[in-house]
């Protein structure tokens, strides 16, 4: 009797693995797309345990199942797989990145920076822009002069180039 139960459990596990595993390239891509869609729709509600479970599923899509079908993938299919990988990493790291940015903004004196920028706009920006314009104008004249000198050394006339 005990062997019968073990056999039944083994068959049930095998059936579950076979049922979950994609049986064709098309099924693989379809399930992968559905998985990424699920992540994009629900990622905000995931806790650490849910992310851990989703990471295990992702490992199947990007590892074992990808290896199973990679020889069959067309260029379009490969682009779909890469897009799904990018989306996975985006959503997987989004909460951490958002948290990091919030901490960074909290650490910065945003109002102080705004005041400094406003002071610069009110006091120094116009003169800096004027100096930048003058420097750019001089650089342009210097460039024309340098090119003209090079062309003269090569016996090429400016009129021939301008035509």
Q: Quickly count the helices.
A: 7
Largest sheet: none
Mean pLDDT: 78
Helix- and strand-based class? mainly alpha
- The N- and C-terminal alpha carbons lie at a distance of 98 Å
Principal-axes geometry comes out as flat
Order of helices and strands: HHHHHHH
Helix content: over 70%
* Number of separate domains: 2
How much of the sequence lies in strands comes to: under 5%
Q: Whole-number radius of gyration?
A: 31 Å
List segments where confidence is low: pLDDT < 50 over at least 5 consecutive residues.
6-18
Number of beta strands? 0
Describe the secondary structure blueprint for this structure:
Layout: H1 2-20, H2 25-42, H3 48-69, H4 75-107, H5 110-123, H6 125-153, H7 158-162
3D structure, described in words:
The protein is mostly helical and 163 residues long. It folds into two domains: 86 residues, no CATH class; 52 residues. Helix content is 86%, strand content 0%. It is built from seven helices and no strands. Helix 2 runs parallel beside helix 4. The radius of gyration is 31 Å and the shape is flat. The termini are far apart. About 8% of the residues have low confidence.
């Amino acid at each position: 009797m005990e062997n019968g139960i073990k056999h039944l459990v083994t068959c049930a596990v095998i059936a579950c693995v076979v049922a979950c595993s994609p049986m064709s390239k098309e099924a693989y891509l379809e399930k992968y797309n559905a998985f990424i869609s699920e992540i994009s729709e629900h990622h905000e509600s995931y806790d650490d345990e849910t992310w851990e479970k989703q990471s295990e599923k992702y490992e199947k899509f990007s590892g074992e199942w990808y290896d199973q079908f990679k020889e069959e993938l067309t260029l379009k299919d490969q682009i779909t797989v890469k897009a799904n990988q990018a989306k996975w990493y985006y959503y997987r790291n989004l909460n951490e990145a958002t948290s990091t940015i919030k901490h960074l903004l909290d650490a910065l004196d945003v109002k102080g920076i705004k005041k400094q920028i406003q002071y610069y706009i009110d006091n120094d920006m116009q003169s800096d822009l004027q100096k930048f314009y003058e420097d750019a104008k001089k650089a342009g004249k210097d460039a024309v002069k340098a090119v003209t000198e090079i062309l003269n050394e090569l016996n090429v006339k400016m009129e021939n180039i301008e035509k």
